Amino acid sequence: MERVECIVVGGGLAGLSAAYGLAAAGREVMVLERGDYPGAKNVTGGRLYLEPLRSIYPELWDDAPFERPVAREFVSMIGDRAETTLELASRSFLEERPQSYTVLRARLDQWLAERAMDKGAMVLPNMKVDALLRDQASGAFGRVVGIRAGEDEIAADVVVVAEGVLGLLSSNAGLRSKPEAIHHALGFKEVIELAPQVIEDRWHLNPGEGAAQLFMGALTRNLMGGGFVYTNKESISFGLVIGMDQLRSHGGQFQSWQLLDEFKQLPCVRPLLAGGTVVEYSAHSIAEGGITQVPKLFGDGYLLVGDTAGLSLNALLTVRGMDFAIASGYYAAQAAAEAIKRGDTSAAGLSGYETRLRRSFVLRDLETSKAIPQLMQNPRLFSHYPDAVCRLLTDLYTVGPDPARTISGRILRAVRRDFLSTATLKDLWSMRKV
Amino acid sequence: MKVDTKLAQNLFKLDKEPHITIDQQVCATVCFNRACIAVCPADLYELTDREQVVVNWEGCLECGACMICCDHGALTWTYPRGGFGVQYRSS
């Protein structure tokens, strides 16, 4: 059997980050990627929050092929009969260095693969791993000793499992459980080509700057989830994220893809897309279970990183995963390189991975946000509140035939009606830990 | 916009063998909600006149939502072989 020090299963951001770190530490590392090239199977909304990664591989980011630095944030609330958008351009998003960038994965992942190869990593595309091999001699739950890809078996001291959110290999090998609908959302999007000038006009941007726009409310037929636009250099990513469990429970009434068509027809959306050409349609599952759904992160001979480890966070206004993926790959590489050097790649030898993740923003941010997955199950967030805000604003802007009430009177009436019921007060109480 | 039209923009490398197979027995006897049809963003699942669930796996975006949402274990779902299936150029 062929043997290498480290195998990385999957050439996404987590796997490539691990490969880069291992190669930079002088370890022998082979990345197996099932697509034609790294990124060929990968999908983001998307935006990468770079700020948490500034101290991780600081030499890399200045040359990264990002799309646009995000200078403006928009959030649109879609009511039954009205829509309203909040626009935020904070100087702090761009001061000195931008905190986040829009990205497209085919470009970004290939670039990171090249950087890993510069350091000496082998990156093999068109290679699908069919199984993780466990040492039979020590029983069903023996050490992970390598992988099988077709007819080939390759042994390794450490297998970094970066196979993505579905976790087919790791769940088959008993390293984590299978994904459940209740903890996952479906993300799907169109990449729509638009001229840079048009993008900048429509989202009020200076040349080269980018925007992120989120939509919540009636556009998902009040299901948990929302819509998004991220502006790329010469296209926009336009799509939806919807809780899978809710989506399937409406089987027979409508299908997921219809919601994207309905979303396009919203009065506040149509002009944003006008004249654009759809050049790609993509979809991906998203783990939204938070820290309680993070599996055991390591064991004898293996480490789980990125989406495979459930490291993603939908916190309503900030949606993160790629920064966690890159950071987890970085800490996995550190821990694995150290373990190989010491000659102990057992669970005990690799435990530095979890220690590092716990000290880092990755598990700390997930821990801080542990109440959010529960909050997101609240249907009022996606129906009642966006509509209530729209109704209040409509009321304030309305001039009718009858003598007007005072502004404060109108606000008080709306607050009493929409924000001070037993249910909404209960919501407020449940917000205290968010 | 028709899903077919959008899928036609994607680059697919088609294998000869399907990577999704359906246990018709399970679909016919246990399943009443057809989650696969509701969730698939590529609209690949359909119910035939004879109440059979079929999947046009060639246009699969490989999100795995159907597999996650099928509670009855009717789907055998793997990724296509290396180098096959959708190859995203942007995403």
Rg of chain A is 23 Å
Spatial gap, N to C terminus of chain B = 19 Å
The poorly predicted ranges of chain A are: none
Radius of gyration of chain B, in angstroms, nearest whole number: 13 Å
Major sheet size, sense and barrel closure of chain B: 2 strands, antiparallel
The average pLDDT value of chain B, as a whole number, equals 95
Number of helices of chain A: 15
Supply the CATH class of the largest domain in chain A: Alpha Beta
Q: Which range best describes the helical content of chain A: under 10%, 10-25%, 25-40%, 40-55%, 55-70% or over 70%?
A: 25-40%
Please, what is the oligomeric state? heterodimer
The amount of beta strand of chain A, in percent, is 25-35%
Structure class of chain B = alpha+beta
Helix content of chain B: 10-25%
The count of helical stretches of chain B stands at 4
- Annotated CATH architecture of the domain at 19-79 in chain B: 2-Layer Sandwich
How many extended strands of chain B?
Answer: 6
Stated plainly, the CATH topology of the largest domain in chain A is called FAD/NAD(P)-binding domain
